[in-house]
Amino acid sequence: MDYYRELFDLIEKQHKWRGSCINLIASENVTSPAVREAIVSDFGHRYAEGLLGGRSNGIQLFDRFYQGTRYFDGIEAIAMKLAEDLFGAEHANVVPVSGAIANLTVYNALTHYGDKISGLRVEAGGHISHTHVSCAGVIGLKDVPYAFDEREMNIDVDRSRETLLKEKPRIMMLGASVFLFPHPIRELREVADEINAKIVYDGAHVLGLIAGGRFQDPFREGADVFTTSTHKTFPGPQGGMILCKNELASKIDNSAFPGLTSNHHLHHVAGLAVALVEMQKFGREYADQIIRNSKALAQAMYELGFSVLCEHKDFTESHQVLVDVSSIGGGDRVANDCEKANIILNKNLLPWDSLKDAGNPSGIRIGVPEVTHIGMKESEMNEIAEFLKRVVIEKEKPERVKKDVIEFMKDYNKVHYCFESELGAYENIRFK
Ligand SMILES: Cc1ncc(COP(=O)(O)O)c(C=O)c1O
Q1: Predicted TM-score (pTM) of this structure
Q2: Can you list the alpha helix ranges (DSSP code H) found in 232-265?
Q3: Spatial CA neighbour of 79 closest among 101, 96, 63, 103
Q4: Among residues 359, 367, 366, 349, which one has the least CA distance to residue 121?
Q5: Which of 35, 262, 340, 379 can bridge 398 by disulfide, Cβ–Cβ 3.0-4.6 Å?
Q6: Ligand 1: residues within 6 Å at CB?
Q7: Atom of ligand 1 nearest to the CA of 100
Q8: Residue among 417, 378, 374 at smallest CA distance from 211
Q9: Residue 88 CB-half CA count within 13 A
Q10: How far apart are the first and last CA of the chain?
Q11: What share of the chain is helix, strand, coil (3-state, %, to 5)?
Q12: Which atom of ligand 1 is nearest to the CA of 239?
């Protein structure tokens, strides 16, 4: 077996295949050519261990343990400054290598073993890293689930307040993986002050919307800390970031390094900095189009007979659309059939499911960040809704729909909302 050839063959196939698929995974995106150039740069070979060493004229200075970081120091300082400006944060830390690690870093900084953390149940859209099965459990935290309003698809503030006053979590997590509507930060700030809790807003899913001035403004509304991934609606490389108030900065920085990360994947920091520049320039237009697209897709699917959640609230204020498919095959079957038609989306628990249903939940979660980033608008959302109807409701052979999807995708091979380049959105960069 020639593994060398086999590996590059698989990489080539991946590019070709995914470029001919409609990608509706809410947590994915494609990066711009400029971000891709940063990711393959020499920084991917290097280390820059070290603590942050203060500021001069608003720019971070570094105290490194390794030599050879003179240009990377500039990049990390620019990434931090851009992130602070774009998200209205007093301090940014770009060390965490993923959103889950960003959460773990904050828990490690702000809690003690055995403390409590409030968050949404996974069935209600909470992320596992907010619960005992993942990062919160690793660090010995006990879950305090919020009460959830299934009709409004949001935290039930009044019922949650009672629980919070009784259980007194140290950290109140907000933000979620199923995230249709802004979370009630303002409404929960008072109770956080009463129980001396910190509000940590996990904006992993909605970072790109917030960068464009949409969805919500976590610090202005009362969050103490803002954790995130950098690659869902925000079109950066896969990675993580923590934004916080100055009073928490040194605890959080120390928890990131030397606490939980040694090498912070410098090429990803370079890619993040480039994506931050892009969002500064193109973010508003991009975020506006994402929300227009998700609403248009939801409306079109609803009119074609899908059971789209929250019709009474215009379906969504984010990049996500949630659909109950329990009566037309269930989430597992629908997601599999769609994949056969080159439409990639994921099955998802709905709030009334049990964790035991995770294999075949009632729902599918649809996201429009990637299709928006490659230039699709409302009319294309109508076409996508039609494809979905043919596969899921009319049960047409997926292989037949696939042919039309491949044709459709031929017109969408460039990344938009970024600086000009000849490189295709799904083009494989070859060096050999
Ligand atoms: C709300 C939320 N937080 C954190 C994460 C974890 O992010 P990462 O995959 O970057 O570790 C996710 C992942 O989907 C998420 O949805």
Answers
A1: 0.98
A2: 246-254
A3: 96
A4: 349
A5: 340
A6: 27, 98-100, 127, 129, 175-177, 202, 204-205, 229, 240
A7: 11
A8: 417
A9: 13
A10: 20
A11: 50, 15, 35
A12: 10
Q: Which CATH number fits domain 35-276: 2.30.30.140, 1.10.1510.10, 3.40.640.10, 3.40.50.1820?
A: 3.40.640.10
DSSP β-bridge partners for residue 243: 92, 226
Supply the angle between the helices 378-388 and 398-409 in degrees, to the nearest 10.
160
Identify the CA nearest to 108 among candidates 209, 313, 251.
Answer: 251
- b vs e for 17-28, b when ≥16 Cβ sit within 10 Å of the residue's Cβ? ebbbbbbbebbb
Q: Which amino acid is at 177?
A: S
Whole-number Å distance between alpha carbons of 210 and 79: 17
Q: d(Cα 62, Cα 68) in Å, to the nearest integer?
A: 13
Contact 384, 392 (CB under 8 A): no
- Please determine, for residue 60, whether its predicted confidence score (pLDDT) is greater than 90: no
Closest CA to ligand 1's atom 16: 177
Q: Which two tokens stand for residue 114?
A: 């055995």
pLDDT of 74-133, one tens digit each? 999 999 999 999 999 999 999 999 999 999 999 999 999 999 999 999 999 999 999 999
Report the pLDDT value the prediction gives residue 342, as an integer from 0 to 100: 98
CA gap 143, 252 in Å, rounded: 22
DSSP string, 62-75: EEESSSS-HHHHHH
Please report the atom of ligand 1 found closest to the CA of residue 240.
10
Tokens 């992130």 locate to: 83
